Amino acid sequence: MNKGVRHYLQVADLEREALLSLIDRAMELKELHGQGISYMPAKGKVLGMIFEKASTRTRVSFEAAMYQLGGSVSFMAKKDLQLDRGEPLKDTARVLSRYLDCIVIRTYGQNMVEEFARWSDIPVINGLTDSHHPCQILSDVMTVMENKGKDLSSLKVAWVGDGNNMAQSWIQAAARIGFPLYLACPKGYEPDEGIMAAAQKETRFPLELLRDPVEAVKDADVINTDVWASMGQEDEAEERKKVFTPYQVNQELLKHAKPDCIVLHCLPAYRGQEITDEVLEGPQSVAWDQAENKMHLHKAVLEWAMGLRD
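Now predict its structure.
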């Protein structure tokens, strides 16, 4: 990768202080936005967005973030680029580096964003891969801090469901920022062993993989879940429903957590599957604040990546 360029491809790319600084800045930017104060340090800057996977929240929140910072956006579906006709990734990366100031990529393989960053002279931000969702996790942690305070070390955070990209980003965040994390995943659907082992080696807090969701959420302050079948796993959906049914976040499961436990879901949610409508619409759900916080967090990441405050 080109030295001096600020890429953000996974949580473990940044040290604890840098991660917390982004969250703190996102809170400041959210407050400015709430006060109606205009802040446009990105005037004349262009954000490129290459999305191979469909998106509602990540796309719109990044676009809104860049526009509110005063910049502009060029959205590119992969099928519309010469990449779809076989142009080497390194050629596309070097060309777009001459046109743009920053780029967000949402794709399948983590190797794609890493290869793009290797050849890019501008910041590359991971907008989601099958392995990581590093911006989402920071807006999730921001939401936890808004509700539970900034000291996460005394909290019990639980993950219930698939050991997917979100679970893996939570694992890295727990190790790097420092808080207890208990994951309940069915056999055969665990997080990546390498990511888990590296995080357990790094952290001084409990980081455990369990089978029983009740055990994972017992006395939890935070419960998080996600869809049972991610994009690209549609052909597994019916089988996954059978496997994951005991892992549904419902009112019965919440009884085992603390009474003031909050529930997160990064959305979209399939009500009646990984989470019930009663819980998602209930008083413990913070999913809508969580969704809003993506935009403010993305502002902070874009500001940092492009050096707009340096």
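The mean pLDDT is 96.
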